[in-house]
Amino acid sequence: MGLLCSHLSEGEPIVSITHKVAALVAASGLTLSGLAAASPALADEPAPTYYVSLGDSLATGWQPDTKTNDTETAYTNRLYQQLKKTHPNLQHEPFGCAGATARSVLTGSHANGTPGACTYDEGTQLAAAVAFIKDHPGQVAYVSVGIGANDVHPCVPDGAGGDNMLICLSKRIQSVGVDVSTIDAALRQAGGSTPRYVGMTYYNPFLAGWLTTDGKPLADLSIGVAQQLNDTLTSANTKNGFATADVAGAFSSNATTPLVTIDVPGGQTEVPLNVARVCQWTWMCSAADIHANDTGHQKIADAFVAALAPRPTPPKPTPPKPAPVVKVATTTSAKLVGKHRITTKKRAAVRVRVRAARGVKPGGVLVVKDGRRTL
To answer: Which residues form the SGNH hydrolase-type esterase domain (predicted)?
Structure first.
């Protein structure tokens, strides 16, 4: 289409100009709707995908120095930033609550009976997450759950010890296993096979007790208890098709060697590696607070990234080659069994023996013939 133009005489009224433009447009056969239709349509933006996170104060990034949830610090946000590199349209939907327990995720109340610090329109953290997942079928790419430590921590108050503490820990850990399995199953039922599901183990904050004479027995005891909790969490996750981020492994929670020199209030001291990690990556040794610091949250996020990394397909095993068939010289002998004559009406038994070189067991099919006739 050529460019339409019109010469306007000097002093021509605006109304006349408008009429001329309208006439030119009409003459060209164009309409405003036609012009709109001729414009290229804007490409639709791809539908967003979602990362849904559930959990406790680690999921919300709670920091004792500010006494607030720091979403930038939280491992969930760090994991989200990493996942977004390969999923540009990924959005984070956090449902975590500082102070949450596995029981409160299910019921809205903490395991010790106190109300949860967060409220949800659906009533519980799990119900809210499940509702979101169901409202976005096929759009949820990742689901993470970090819960269970707050259920057992009340068993280890200051100065706690003895059988009462161990009985409390045993009961709480067993309860955590049941509750986490229920949480995982509900999330998987809501999301189906589309999302990647991942839970976590926990580092052991009570290792910090190693720094004091009175605290060393509890620190030593806590290693086995923490392992029992983490084994229970891993089992519940595996049962429901969840991967498990090995946070305990990232913090070297069971590594009592080598000895590492660290800074502590009042100077430097030499401690086992697992104690050093807790002192360096949490607030336990500086502020007597169990929460991870900035470095610790990054280590937790890295553990989640590793758990979500695609596993290489193992190579198919090469079937063994069949043993080659080796022909060896043999000797064959045959004789009748028993003393009787062979007639057309009476059967006889023949024992045939095939021998080969020493150490070689001959194989194959033995055929007895009478001339060309197979007997």
So the answer is: 54-298
Residues in the chain predicted with pLDDT less than 50, given as ranges, are 1-41, 159
Global pTM value: 0.72
Cβ contact 102:151 at 8 Å: yes
DSSP conformation class of 208: G
Look at the chain and count its residues. 375
Specify whether the CB–CB gap between 100 and 145 falls below 8 A.
no
The b/e string for 70-98 (b: 16+ C-beta within 10 A; e otherwise) is eeebbbbbbbbeebeeeeeebebbbbbbb
Is beta strand 90-94 parallel, antiparallel or unpaired with respect to 49-55?
parallel
**With contact defined as beta carbons under 8 Å apart, do 49 and 90 qualify?**
yes
pLDDT at 6: 38
Single-letter amino acid, residue 181: S
Residue at 208: amino acid letter: A
Instruction: Give, as one character, the DSSP assignment of residue 207.
Output: G
- The per-residue pLDDT for 349 is 78
Which domains, from first to last, does the chain contain?
49-248+291-308 (3.40.50.1110)
Q: At 35, is the secondary structure helix, strand, or coil?
A: helix
- Retrieve residue 160's tokens: 């706690």
Which residues, 6 or more positions from 126, have their beta carbon under 8 angstroms from its beta carbon? 54, 105, 106, 183, 186, 187
Does the bond joining 258 to the residue before it have cis omega, within 30 degrees of 0?
Answer: yes
Q: Are strands 349-356 and 330-337 parallel, antiparallel or unpaired?
A: antiparallel
Residue 126 · residue 106 · CB < 8 Å: yes
